[in-house]
Amino acid sequence: MGEPTIFEQIAAGDIPARIVYETDTVLAFLDANPLAPGHTLVVPKEAHERLRDLPDDVATDLWAAVDELTPRVEDAVDADALTVGVNDGEAAGQEVPHVHVHLVPRFDGDGGGPIHAVAGSRPDLSDEELDDIEERIET
Ligand code: 5GP
């Protein structure tokens, strides 16, 4: 076993956090460096690095918590919208190696971008390449 992640330490009560939701398997707390008021992280209590590592029952609980919390977070800070995202892997910007879903309240004219802003240059894919990708994901 490696070092416990910072989020495991929060789940264990060893590091303080502003906890807004808790079940046997899932915890949500305010981000320590919020991108907006109400920026919340939803995490499984068990340490799993990537979405692909989550056991089915934990994934179900995690996404149920996200579903429950999205309106609560948005309404709590009187936001106009919410960006929901996961940096799933280092190349996607994941810094804490413990699955976490960001709920970032958004406000009209807040100067932020859509999810589309996270990618660099867009690929120009041929029909063959699209066919191939479609097939690989399907199977
Ligand atoms: P990532 O880049 O891995 O998707 O995001 C990690 C997030 O965790 C960041 O938004 C960061 O502010 C937050 N974070 C890191 N350490 C702590 C901590 O000790 N407590 C809380 N509440 N948030 C943290």
Following the backbone from N to C, one meets helices and strands in this order, namely: HEEEHEEH
Work out the oligomeric state of the chains in this entry: single chain
Per DSSP, the total helix count is: 3
Rg is 17 Å
* CATH top-level class: Alpha Beta
Number of β-strand runs: 5
Please state the average pLDDT score: 96
Report the CATH superfamily: HIT-like
Biggest sheet features: 5 strands, antiparallel
Overall description:
It contains three helices and five strands; from the N terminus they run αβββαββα. By secondary structure, the chain is an alpha+beta fold. It has one domain: HIT family, subunit A (2-Layer Sandwich), CATH 3.30.428. A five-stranded antiparallel sheet has the order 1-2-3-5-4, with helices on one face. β1 (19-22) and β2 form a beta hairpin. Guanosine-5'-monophosphate is lined by residues 6, 15, 17, 29, 31-33, 41, 87, 93-96. The active site is at 100 (tele-amp-histidine intermediate).
Which features characterize this protein?
single chain; binds guanosine-5'-monophosphate; globular; alpha+beta; 139 residues; HIT family, subunit A; 28% helix
